[in-house]
């Protein structure tokens, strides 16, 4: 996988459009792994529109490219803690995806490394992420990348509760 290159997304264009396609695939995959809150139709466009103004400020995306094809991406952002928790900055890994046929070659690890290095340049010393309980592959991946379990997230839909 020596011919894979990594670059930071800077603007709208074909790279972002390819990422939108991967974003939909990622939500399809997460749906199979127990995600209860699905992407709405066209949600990938809403996501990319909200992402663009954050780039170079409190958000970042690293892409993995094979030639001109986007084969993976990782998105991170900076969150400010409330004063009662110290008021510092925390890194958030919000999305990561590598195309199925390109997995197990170290591309996800390299994307995580690029993002962690970016967080270090922003003086961030801890990173949070959420992983689906039933996504064992991703859980293993994050455990092996040095992340520890901290919370369980639970959800209950209220449809029918008041009837
Ligand atoms: C999670 C995900 C991003 C990992 O991407 P990846 O490119 O396969 O990651 P890597 O190749 O760096 O690591 C995957 C495994 O391959 C192993 N590996 C890496 N390079 C390897 C190589 N050259 N030969 C054999 N194995 C290798 C790693 O040790 C790692 O093992 P682990 O599963 O025990 O941790 C990918 O599986 C994915 O896109 N999943 C779907 C979306 C998803 O679940 N996102 C996470 C949401 S929290």
From TrEMBL:
Which Pfam family is one of those matched by this entry?
Acetyltransf_1
Which InterPro entries does this chain map to? Acyl_CoA_acyltransferase (IPR016181), GNAT_dom (IPR000182)
What residues does the N-acetyltransferase domain cover? 4-163
- The membrane spanning regions, by residue number, are none
Protein name (database record): GNAT family N-acetyltransferase
Q: Which organism is it from?
A: Paenibacillus violae
